[in-house]
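C-alpha cells please, single chain.
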Amino acid sequence: AFHAANAAGIAATMVVEIAEAPGCTAWTFEIRDGHLLPRRNASPLADIHLRTTTSGFFAFVRGQADAEEVGELNGDPDVARAIQACFITH
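Here you go.
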C-alpha cells in the first residue's frame, strides 16, 4: 500500500516494466506532493526505469529487496529507494 506520509517531499517518476507479461506491460508511478499517480504505459520522462518480474516488483514494494536486486535498474538507486520507502510501513 502507498503511504502518503512517507512521500512528503518526494517528486519522482518510476517506470516499472514486468518482463514476463505479454507485451512487457509497463506502468508509470509518479509521486508528487504526497500523492501517487499510477498510469499504464511507460513515461519517457521517468527518473527511474525498472525491468523486473512480478515477484521482483512485489519484493521491491514490500521492502524485501532493492530495485537493483530484483531486475535491471536504470537511474539513481537512491531515488529508487526513496520511491520504495513510500510503500513500506515504518
